[in-house]
Structures are given as C-alpha cells and as structure tokens.
Amino acid sequence: MMLKRNDLCWCKSGLKYKKCHLEFDKKLSDLKRKGYIVPGKKLIKTKEQIEGIKKSAEINNGLLDLISENIKEGMTTEEIDKLTYDYTISKGGIPADLNYDGFPKSICVSINNEVCHGIPSNDVILKNGDIVNIDATSILNGYYSDASRMFMIGEVNEEAKNLVKVAKECLNKGLEEVKPWGFLGDIGAAIQEHAESNGYSVVREFGGHGVGLDIHEDPFVFHFGKRGTDMVLAPGMVFTIEPMINAGSHEIFIDENNGWTALTADGSLSAQWEHTVLVTEEGVEVISK
Ligand code: MF3
Ligand code: CO
Ligand code: CO
C-alpha cells in the first residue's frame, strides 16, 4: 500500500504521513537503492510498542535487581529460578524462557566455563569464586525485554574479575556505536577489537537480536566483524547487544546431556552482559537499566 502525503502515518502516531515518517521512508528506500541493507517496517517499533517494551523492561530490570540482592554462596540455581517465576508472575508478567523451544526453566544461569543457557537445578550450588551470568527475559502484555548481568560469588580471583570487567566494557563499546544511520557492523567490530586487544575471544555462534514483539527477531547482532557493514540502523529499532567473551579460545560446544547449555571448548571462563537498546533520533537509549 502506497501512503499519500496527507494520509495518516503507518506508525499510528495520529500525524499525517508528510509530518511523520515520510522523510524517514524516503531515506531508507534511497539507501536500499544504493545497495545498503536496511531494516524492514517490522523492525521499526511504533511509539505504543516502545512504551510496551519499556514496561516489560521494568519487570525484567526489577527481577535482576531482586536477584542481585539475594544471590549468595550456598544458594542453588533452582532458588534463582523460583525467585524469577514468583516475581515475574506477581508483576503480571511471564518468564519468556519457560517452555521456549522446550527450555525447562524460567531463567538462564551460566557459571564459569558455561557460556550461556545454563539450566537452573537443585544440584547446582553457587560456590565461592564463581562468576555467574544471569540472563532474564520477560513478557508483559505481549512485549518482550531481555538483559543479563554478571555476579561474582565471594572472593573471585583477579583473572576472573578482569574477564567480567572487560566483558562489560565490550558491551559498553558496542553501545557507543549505536546511532541512527550508523551500521550494525560497527557494533561487532568495536566489541571484537576490545575483547581481542585484552587477550580474550568473542563467541561466534550466538549474537544479539531484535526483540520486543517476540523473544528473537531480526536482525542478528554479530559481536565481531567489520565497520561499515551489515544493516543500517534507524530510529525505532530495538535489539539486544550481548557479547559472550571467553578467556581462552572462542570455540564452544553444547552439553549433550541437556541439549542447551553452551560451554567453552577449552574449559576457560566465559562472561557476558546484555542490554536491550532502542535506536533514537539522537543516538541510543538503553531500555534495560
Ligand atoms: N535470554 C536469551 C537471549 O539473550 C534467550 C534465552 S532462551 C532460553 O537471547 F530458552 F534459553 F531461555
Ligand atoms: Co538474554
Ligand atoms: Co538476548
């Protein structure tokens, strides 16, 4: 359908097309004609959708805050799962992980050499010196938000501490690259440069992703790559950046006992931080704060 200048904009702002997304659409179709990869309409969130995603993120952020207040040595990861389920339901939300593609629990808890998708269990007890990634995804009124943080249990050695710190810096380096009409490839390039200059490696098999109306949407957000490549970023896009940084080689394997948990191939430590971000007219807004 071709909108006319005086029609109402497709984004449901209530404004005429010419006063709203007309210039925006022209810019994207120009770029597309020149050969750039541009986001389709489905990847541009409306104001209403952005509000919904932000409300969902309030629960998700609250959950991670609650976990950070309660996490401690001696706790089982099953207890973290229960905290997640109870808190999310009490706020009117749904843990997005639960039953996602058969995932059996409400949250991912990945310890030390586990890269991601660690499954909470009564048999896994947090111990002194562990570094732990907690990755939470929440649904509220059909809107999704996704974030993860690292936690250090008791006394953690300097090597592990440094990995956790550099992994967070990698996320921040990625965030700094997010700007309208920039490139998705700039994010991965900045992350890879920072990880590798610190002697670490970037996991290849998992990336960030569009998020909001579903848990995983396009685009796939690489955490390595080249500047000036991949999709052009436009205001209204919502996606995650979630670099998984290994102390040793970037290679991983999947635990065949559960079919989910990714582990480092060489047994080295892995750390990850994740934010959900919105591309704005001015730059970036971190939604998962
Ligand atoms: N939160 C994860 C992500 O960042 C998704 C977890 S899906 C699950 O994409 F099934 F493993 F829980
Ligand atoms: Co996540
Ligand atoms: Co994610």
UniProtKB/TrEMBL annotation:
<keyword id="KW-0031">Aminopeptidase</keyword>
<feature type="binding site">
    <location>
        <position position="146"/>
    </location>
    <ligand>
        <name>a divalent metal cation 1</name>
    </ligand>
</feature>
<dbReference type="GO" id="GO:0006508">
    <property type="term" value="P:proteolysis"/>
</dbReference>
<keyword id="KW-0645">Protease</keyword>
<dbReference type="InterPro" id="IPR001714">
    <property type="entry name" value="Pept_M24_MAP"/>
</dbReference>
<keyword id="KW-0479">Metal-binding</keyword>
<feature type="domain" description="Peptidase M24">
    <location>
        <begin position="51"/>
        <end position="281"/>
    </location>
</feature>
<dbReference type="Pfam" id="PF02810">
    <property type="entry name" value="SEC-C"/>
</dbReference>
<dbReference type="Pfam" id="PF00557">
    <property type="entry name" value="Peptidase_M24"/>
</dbReference>
<comment type="subunit">
    <text>Monomer.</text>
</comment>
<feature type="binding site">
    <location>
        <position position="117"/>
    </location>
    <ligand>
        <name>substrate</name>
    </ligand>
</feature>
<dbReference type="GO" id="GO:0046872">
    <property type="term" value="F:metal ion binding"/>
</dbReference>
<feature type="binding site">
    <location>
        <position position="274"/>
    </location>
    <ligand>
        <name>a divalent metal cation 1</name>
    </ligand>
</feature>
<dbReference type="GO" id="GO:0004239">
    <property type="term" value="F:initiator methionyl aminopeptidase activity"/>
</dbReference>
<comment type="function">
    <text>Removes the N-terminal methionine from nascent proteins. The N-terminal methionine is often cleaved when the second residue in the primary sequence is small and uncharged (Met-Ala-, Cys, Gly, Pro, Ser, Thr, or Val). Requires deformylation of the N(alpha)-formylated initiator methionine before it can be hydrolyzed.</text>
</comment>
<feature type="binding site">
    <location>
        <position position="209"/>
    </location>
    <ligand>
        <name>a divalent metal cation 2</name>
    </ligand>
</feature>
<feature type="binding site">
    <location>
        <position position="135"/>
    </location>
    <ligand>
        <name>a divalent metal cation 1</name>
    </ligand>
</feature>
<feature type="binding site">
    <location>
        <position position="216"/>
    </location>
    <ligand>
        <name>substrate</name>
    </ligand>
</feature>
<keyword id="KW-0378">Hydrolase</keyword>
<feature type="binding site">
    <location>
        <position position="274"/>
    </location>
    <ligand>
        <name>a divalent metal cation 2</name>
    </ligand>
</feature>
<dbReference type="InterPro" id="IPR004027">
    <property type="entry name" value="SEC_C_motif"/>
</dbReference>
<dbReference type="GO" id="GO:0070006">
    <property type="term" value="F:metalloaminopeptidase activity"/>
</dbReference>
<comment type="similarity">
    <text>Belongs to the peptidase M24A family. Methionine aminopeptidase type 1 subfamily.</text>
</comment>
<feature type="binding site">
    <location>
        <position position="146"/>
    </location>
    <ligand>
        <name>a divalent metal cation 2</name>
    </ligand>
</feature>
<dbReference type="InterPro" id="IPR036005">
    <property type="entry name" value="Creatinase/aminopeptidase-like"/>
</dbReference>
<dbReference type="InterPro" id="IPR000994">
    <property type="entry name" value="Pept_M24"/>
</dbReference>
<dbReference type="InterPro" id="IPR002467">
    <property type="entry name" value="Pept_M24A_MAP1"/>
</dbReference>
<protein>
    <recommendedName>
        <fullName>Methionine aminopeptidase</fullName>
        <ecNumber>3.4.11.18</ecNumber>
    </recommendedName>
</protein>
<feature type="binding site">
    <location>
        <position position="242"/>
    </location>
    <ligand>
        <name>a divalent metal cation 2</name>
    </ligand>
</feature>
